[in-house]
Structure to design on (267 residues):
């Protein structure tokens, strides 16, 4: 693992295949981190795609990372992040080689949290229900989210929420249309204002958002102390609770923690 960066990814309790992914490069001085949460379809045969969500997530993640790495050395900016994601979506769509119907609403897709940093700034991009938890210089944590997350929460756990995905006045995910980048929420923050950050898919964010097991400060410290123990604690809670028929008992997890307080930033 690169200095100052720790990652974790694992499947949920009831699934053999992990549809989340995490990517990183560089170190705490300058680098990139990405998490993607593959959107599971309740009826895989209606996706119109012969490859599946895991294939999509792996290919999209690899391509986003490569595209960001090309752009970031010249410009760490939200503009560069959006351009990288846009190019990666187009490139991944071409990899279907015309064999898949990418116009279906159920086509493989993913949510995203992406960050890039250098000696001066930290740039973040978030889409749908992935999160970035930022620990400020004062020790307080704030959470960067997609405003459309409220729409998802309003309808969850009603599976009817899917009809609001990638449509006007709905919420958006990364799929086959590069214009979705118009809906990605971005931030550019002076590095001196941040001690570190955690990128997470919603499988781990449930610790705060749904399960109320602690605060976002507790979440940040738990991931930083021992990420595997932290995820095991979530799984332990999930394994002991009643299983709802209208929702997953647990979800896949992808995490990236970047400590920006330990590197010697050149001046």
């Amino acid at each position: 693992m690169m200095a100052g960066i720790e990652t974790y990814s694992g499947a949920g309790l009831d699934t053999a295949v992990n549809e989340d992914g995490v990517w990183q490069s560089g170190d705490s001085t300058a680098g990139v981190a990405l998490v993607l949460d593959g959107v599971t379809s309740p009826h895989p045969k209606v996706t119109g795609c012969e490859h599946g969500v895991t294939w999509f997530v792996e290919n999209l993640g690899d391509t986003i990372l490569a595209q960001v790495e090309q752009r970031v050395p010249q410009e760490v900016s939200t503009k560069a992040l959006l351009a990288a994601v846009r190019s990666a979506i187009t490139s991944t769509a071409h990899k279907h080689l015309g064999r898949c119907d990418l116009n279906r609403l159920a086509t493989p897709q993913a949510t995203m949290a992406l960050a890039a940093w250098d000696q001066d700034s930290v740039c973040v991009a978030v889409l749908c229900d992935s999160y970035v938890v930022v620990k400020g210089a004062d020790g307080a944590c704030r959470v960067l989210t997609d405003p459309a997350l409220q729409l998802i929460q309003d309808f969850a756990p009603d599976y009817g929420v899917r009809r609001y995905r990638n449509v006007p006045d709905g919420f958006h995910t990364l799929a086959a249309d590069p214009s979705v980048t118009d809906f990605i929420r971005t931030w550019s923050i002076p590095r001196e204002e941040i001690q570190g950050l955690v990128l997470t898919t919603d499988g781990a964010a449930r610790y705060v958002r749904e399960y109320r097991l602690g605060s976002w400060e507790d979440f940040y410290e738990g991931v930083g102390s021992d990420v595997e123990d932290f995820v095991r604690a979530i799984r332990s809670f999930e394994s002991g609770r009643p299983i709802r028929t209208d929702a997953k008992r647990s979800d896949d997890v992808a995490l990236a923690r970047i400590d920006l307080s330990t590197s010697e930033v050149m001046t």
